[in-house]
Amino acid sequence: MTDFYEELAALDTLALRRKRRVVDSPCAPELVVDGRKVLAFCSNDYLGLANDPALVAAAQEGARLYGLGAGASPLITGHMAPHAALERRLAAFTGMERALLFSTGYLANLGVVPGLTARGDAVFSDRLNHASLIDAARLSRAGLNIYPHLDLAALEAALAASRAKRKLVVTDAVFSMDGDIAPLPQLLALAERHDAWLLVDDAHGFGVLGPQGRGAAAHFGLNSPRLLVMGTLGKAAGAAGAFVAGSENVIEWVLQKARTYIFSTAEPPLIAHALLKSIDLIEQGDIRRRHLAALIAQLRGALQLKRWRLLPSDTAIQPLLIGDNAETMDVANKLFERGLWVPGIRPPTVPAGTARLRITLSAAHAGDQVGQLAAALMQLESELA
To answer: Which of 3, 56, 78, 303 has the fewest CB atoms within 10 Å of its CB?
Structure first.
């Protein structure tokens, strides 16, 4: 017990202890948090679908038709009609041969990477990949090669030097803490040149990037039997769950080998039923995506900062680099006092010395709300100089 007390105290000293807040309202820009109303810029609900009336109605219909729980894993009795329909819809929507549902994106990556690789194989991972990809690579027991962020030359050299039986390149599409987009065409070309597979974690691109929100692969016009895409359904899709899409044989192999699929209870069928409506809304959501793009441009144009730095990003993730842990959390707390909720992100989520505010925008935000945030940030930078 003493060890934990001392280690928790050390986290406090370094301004690294994480704390939760209690939200008592539906997911939306305006929330009730710890009993007070705030304007939130910290949700991954990029299209504003999480509380959309049509999606809520679809979930209610799903509950009437199928009840709440699936009752078992998909390979027992848990694979129900809405799950099957959603897998077909997702495959068609992403332009892939087949899709497989998982309960979360973390479980999807944790199942797919060890399902495809093992001892004697090699995984090549961008240094800034999401924790789920790093954990999945370690769990696979394959050789792990971490290349510097977006360093294609380093990746090519590692691929060329590898004598592994099977090689798998894994990358975020949109990097969750930086908001930049991976050069997927070049990554796929390297994978094809060096007899490797490419797994793209499209958690923050699905629904937002590409024609009709079909994702990062569609954004770049990619199509290859060596390409697999993981997309989450709790961000732009507004619900919960995840999927992996790819060629027929690869997805069948994942179904046979992914332990997080085989040994997990299937997601509630009412969610799968609601997600069928969500995919329709995404497909028809060009107005939402145009509004989101306008908000991104507005924020970037309004923030004329001297000491803090807005990192380059054309996505809904707009990281504001502050650097020091304590100052970052001080800014986040001062914003919250003003009724603006923006999370402070510190190590180990980001490298030491790069603590930041992770601003996320949604199509549900209004222009005047973004203006309010920009004005508060400009004022705080001046006050804390």
So the answer is: 3
Domain ranges of the chain: 19-47+286-383, 53-283
Q: Which of 103, 132, 140, 176 does the annotation list as catalytic?
A: 176
Burial pattern 53-84, b for ≥16 Cβ within 10 A else e, equals eebbebbeebbeebeeebeeebeeebbbebbe
Amino acid at position 305, single letter: L
pLDDT in tens, 321-353: 999 999 999 999 999 999 999 999 999 999 999
| Active site (annotated) includes residue 83 | no
Rounded Cα–Cα distance for residues 224 and 36 (Å): 50
Strand partners, 171: 200
Strand partners, 198: 169, 227
pLDDT tens track for 199-219: 999 999 999 999 999 999 999
Q: Tokens representing 198? A: 């490419």
The CATH topology of domain 19-47+286-383 is Aspartate Aminotransferase, domain 1 (3.90.1150)
- Known active-site residue 194: no
79 is catalytic: no
Query: Among residues 235, 273, 277, 365, which one is catalytic?
Result: 235
pLDDT tens for each residue of 61-80: 999 999 999 999 999 999 99
Beta strands, E only, 45-166: 98-102, 122-126, 143-147
pTM for this model (two decimals): 0.94
Structure tokens at 36: 């007070």
Q: Contact, 301 vs 363, CB < 8 A?
A: no
* From 83, 167, 204, 365, the catalytic residue: 204
* Neighbouring C-beta atoms of residue 211, cutoff 10 Å: 11
What tokens were used for 252? 């069948």
Is the pLDDT at 2 greater than 70? The verdict is no
CATH node for 53-283: 3.40.640.10
